[in-house]
Inverse folding.
């Protein structure tokens, strides 16, 4: 029987047990979805504002609105941008097409996801590679902004990641971050961020807006699961997608998990 250190919650234990399944499912999505029906893997964002989108992007409105909310504090036009943990590239593509950076690169640890990105997207000044967030393969003082959306909760060493972000940012550059944590881990994340070499410019909890998005996007997510996943994987894919009946959705609704957004800057 696996033993856990004293003090770990049931939710933390459950998340650790599911980690290998998430990795398999993440790779599986890139294997079965060759037509690009799933290009975003985040939970989305919804408030009273409605972002103006091109017709082809409307189906991904709520995941796109999460990216927009995360980056809107910093005008990215003309900047060199990096997304760490880009997944299947939907957010990276949105930034490249709508926000006019000088360049944007995305990387992810999943080789199949990056293979998909390189096959699916053909946008000027946009590129992808396979890499590790704890060993970022770029030189010091390289980027004006680094983006990290709903990825860091899988990292084994958050402090190492933050050091890497600081290293590759240019002086004055921004770290634009959003992710969720169990309630008991929120303060730990705050301490990790505040003790890093980056200065906190903005901090907010956006859980209710993420829940709003999951409510509004529920039917689309269920249709995709029914289309792409075999029935034996439906319970797992629903948990991964945060549909209404899942433990993840219920934890957000009960504030047992919180979704946080930070803007940070390198002095």
């Amino acid at each position: 029987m696996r033993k856990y250190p004293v003090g770990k919650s049931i939710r933390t234990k459950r998340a650790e047990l599911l980690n290998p399944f998430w990795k398999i499912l993440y790779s599986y999505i890139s294997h079965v979805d060759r037509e690009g029906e799933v290009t975003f893997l985040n939970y989305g964002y919804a408030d009273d504002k409605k972002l103006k989108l091109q017709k082809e992007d409307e189906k991904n409105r709520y995941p796109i609105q999460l990216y927009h909310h995360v980056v809107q504090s910093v005008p990215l036009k003309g900047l060199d941008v990096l997304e760490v943990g880009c997944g299947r590239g939907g957010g990276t593509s949105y930034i490249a097409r709508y926000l006019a950076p000088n360049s944007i690169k995305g990387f992810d640890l999943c080789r199949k996801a990056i293979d998909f990105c390189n096959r699916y997207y053909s946008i000027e000044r946009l590129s992808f590679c396979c890499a590790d967030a704890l060993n970022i393969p770029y030189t010091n003082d390289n980027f004006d902004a680094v983006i990290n959306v709903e990825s860091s909760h899988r990292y084994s060493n958050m402090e190492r990641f933050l050091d890497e972000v600081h290293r590759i940012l240019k002086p004055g550059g921004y770290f634009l971050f959003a992710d969720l944590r169990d309630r008991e881990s929120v303060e730990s994340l705050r301490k990790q961020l505040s003790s890093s070499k980056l200065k906190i410019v903005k901090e907010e909890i956006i859980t209710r807006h993420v829940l709003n998005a999951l409510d509004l996007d529920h039917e689309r997510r269920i249709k995709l699961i029914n289309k792409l996943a075999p029935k034996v994987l439906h319970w797992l894919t629903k948990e991964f997608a945060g549909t209404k009946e899942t433990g993840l959705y219920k934890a957000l609704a009960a504030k047992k998990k919180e979704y946080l957004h930070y803007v940070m800057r390198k002095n």
Observations:
- The chain has one domain: 37-217+257-265.
- Confidence is low (pLDDT under 50) at residues 1-18.
- DSSP finds ten helices and seven strands in the chain.
- The longest strand covers residues 169-182.
